[in-house]
Amino acid sequence: MKDSIAARRYGEAFISYARDTIGVEKAVEDCRNIRNLVRENPEFIALLRNPVMTYAEKSDFIDRLLEGDFSDEFKHFLKLLTDKRRIDDLPEIAEYLWMAYSRRAQVSVALRSAFTLDIDSIEALRSVLEKRFSKKVKFDIELDQDLLGGVQVAIGNTIIDGSIRRSLNDLREKLSLTRVT
To answer: Are 92 and 154 contained in the same domain?
Structure first.
């Protein structure tokens, strides 16, 4: 990305707006579709960059060309980019949004537990994790007697360790640092 900060800011602003109106999934779908359209028709951006055309003509062009295939919210976003002279950033913004949000639909979570968890406990944990990470959670559950008790959750590079073994190790470390006089 040639201007990744601008792409990220405009992309996140659009997602924030879309989250409350059309939803993230539709916003990501529109980004995928515009990426394909721009790849197949590079003159699309050149036309919207054309200084001879007025903003009204460009807006009308966006409405007519994208009618039915794209959400009104996405068309408004394209008009904003055109008005702010950021239309050249469209491929980078669409790529950023696609990479950042297309894979957010579901994530695999490694759940290790010292004992068998009941369905209610799993669903409560699922609810907390989905809210915290803004993703649907799919558990891969493993029993691990070495934890002694509690659970350990791994999501990508993030590990949440609520095991008794971890608590005992933390306590051992604190005690070893304590000086007795």
So the answer is: no
pLDDT in tens, 120-167: 988 998 888 888 877 778 888 888 877 777 788 887 767 777 777 777
Domain boundary among 101, 116, 148: 101
Q: Which residues constitute the domain of residue 84? A: 4-101
The amino acid present at 38, given as its one-letter code, is V
pLDDT, tens digit, 9 for 90 and up, residues 20-77? 899 888 998 898 899 889 989 989 999 999 999 999 999 999 999 999 889 999 999 9
Rounded CA-CA distance 80/88 in Å is 12
Burial of 75-113, coded b for 16+ CB within 10 Å and e otherwise, reads: bbbbbebbeeebbebbbbbbbbbbeebeeeeebebebbb
Let me know: does 130 contact 136? Beta carbons within 8 Å: yes
Residue 19 CB partners (closer than 8 Å, separation 6+) = 27
**How does DSSP classify residue 178?**
P
Instruction: Report the C-alpha gap between 48 and 85 in whole angstroms.
Output: 9
Please give the DSSP secondary-structure letter assigned to residue 89: G
- pTM exceeds cut of 0.85: no
Residue 128 has a CB neighbour count (10 Å cut-off) of: 13
